[in-house]
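Sequence in, structure out. Go.
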Amino acid sequence: MNLALLATVLMRRSELRRHERWSRVRLEAHQAAALRELRDFAYARSPFYQRFHKGLTLRPLHELPVLTKTELMERFDDIVTDREVRRADVEAHLPRLDHDERFLGRYWVASTSGSTGRRGLFLWDSDEWTTVLASYSRANEWAGVAPGLGRRMRLAVVSSTAPWHQSARVGATVRGVLVPTIRIDSGEPIGTIVDRLNAFRPECLVAYASMARLLAEEQLAGRLRISPGAVTSASECSRHAGLHLYEDLVIAEPVDERHRPVPPGVPAAKLLVTVLFSRTQPLIRYEMSDRVWLAAEPCPCGRVFACLGGVEGRQEDVVRVAGAKPGFDERALEEALGRALAAAGAVVPAVRVERVERIPRTAAGKAPFVRAERQRDESRRANS
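Output:
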């Protein structure tokens, strides 16, 4: 990261820090003003939103239609506000990514892995990317570790090394003398990951939640021997358990299957996200499949932002076989899994156990997702 960009990011981070001292009334006024600016920009420059919100431009947010990932990709060329941007060109640009290249010389581009069924493309201009970087810096600062002009920080990231993944894009931008960074692919064997972390000795460790758990087990077993000042996997509050929402940057709406708001403490079927600083690719009520619920009480840390009470939908389930040996009985395990599924209320499919050297992961290093359908059905009955 060059010093000019670093200075800009630190200035943006300072602005965001002031937001954390706002009252709830001040935060909501900011959201309303930022939402109006976002909508006005989208209506002036995005052919898609001119049609999608036709007759609704003065209606409140909760009355606007929902933007799905399918629609985002199929209408990509009309959603973006720069008429030079075309989805086909963006997709052709992704395989060429190596360091900190920008699409058309001015846009940072990232893609999702498609683990939920369809890949998503996202891009940011310089001002938007500065906010993204500042939000990452905020997460590290909240966890107790943050770099600055007078402080170096050894950072280890165990996630995806795919160059089109957002975390990899951030890493390519911030890489430099102030943030000595090692990126380790979460798909590597756990022994290799442990060895590389032991050699690097990070001050801050960033990892997928499931990977952080595995690394904690390696540390407890004595194989991993590092002493980071912070371990982060999202926007955690370092003083209390919980996940804060960056409500000065996004408006998040937990909703049921029919897109009706759900109260705090009730698991939502979906999460609708409006990114208040998005301009190149406006995201207004963008549908995410994450199943979350808001905490019923504010976080004791005193920050104005709401907290998530939990995250349920996209779960990685790990099946552990106690005392398993090379000669364990696959048929007995199949029967045991079938019984466990039946006990959980599932319609039991044919279960087949097959021994593999490693569990296949997506290009972003993620394992396949398992959804808690029984709990979703129970939630539906409770809300009916």
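Check: Residues 46 and 63 are 19 Å apart (CA to CA). Confidence is low (pLDDT under 50) at residues 369-384.
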